[in-house]
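Reading a protein record of the kind used here takes only a little practice. To see the layout at work, look at the sequence and tokens printed below.
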Amino acid sequence: MHFYEGGSIIIVEVKTSKNDFLQDKKWMSYLDYCDDFYFLLSADLRSDYYQAPYYQTDKSVGLLLKTKNTLKIHEPHTFEHTAKEHEQIHFLIGKVLSKKHVYGY
């Protein structure tokens, strides 16, 4: 999760296996909490992105690819919505990060 200019919230869902990528449906519930959503896939899973069932009907989820030491937007997100309750989400993220920093969990 990342805050972007102007307080936009970006979520990146990392998938390391084909099975995890194609079977997982939890990511859809994250859309209410972000402005932009991307999958980060290894290069060997890139073709699976285009064959995923949701992609055939809804091409709105973005795709990031790792190239050397950087991430590149391979497919931009295009869905038209924004996170609900930005201030509350920012507060809760800050609370979790503070707890992790202070207590280590």
